[in-house]
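Standup notes, structure subgroup. Blocker cleared on the iron/sulfur cluster input:
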Amino acid sequence: MLRITPYLGIIVLIVSIAGLWFPILGYFLLIVFATLMITSIFRGRWFCGNLCPRGSFNDFWLGKVTRKKKIPAILRSFWIRIPIFIAVMGFMGYRLLSTQGLVNQIGMVFVIMCLTTTIIAIFLGVGISPRTWCTLCPMGTVQNLIGANKYPLNVNNKKCISCNKCEKTCPMQLEVHTSNKKADCIKCERCVLSCPTKALSFKV
Ligand code: SF4
Ligand code: SF4
Ligand code: SF4
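Run returned:
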């Protein structure tokens, strides 16, 4: 992760709360959407583990109060994620069409979207695990679909001693060293740093 990553969570509160009085702040979400779409082409879900304000909020704020339970496997299923994607995007599109192009009303649609998903993320993060929302977030799903195979995590099986430290530290609760399917890896590098034998690395 980047040095700035732990501090980005404050942006979530600024947009979700101050945005109710200053809807123009909602346009920040457009910057987020554009950035994650571009980065996903080259690095999959890298944005989620390094630049997403809500990802930072989930890790470094909710991480202090979470119950740290296992994220239910069903939430990783595209049978759940695609309908959520369609529902969230459809609802946002419907709200945008009803704004008649007014700048503040458009901004408010984004603010309400940010506030609503933040509340859901808090419930899931506190009740289950900090990154539970990130397993089904529409923007995470998009990055998965665009860049699933980009910037993959490589496991050197000759070095791996199966100590499992990588999986204990993974915020997405992935099978870090036992599975090659890691399209939802957010490239946070925590597993890499936790590995005692340096068996993990990212391929550029
Ligand atoms: S899954 Fe969504 S909320 Fe979570 S870090 Fe990625 S873009 Fe942000
Ligand atoms: S932390 Fe490293 S050595 Fe331990 S299981 Fe993971 S990859 Fe293998
Ligand atoms: S596999 Fe490693 S880099 Fe990927 S999300 Fe888990 S801890 Fe982060």
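Discussed briefly. The chain has one domain: 5-147.
Next: hand off to the docking folks.
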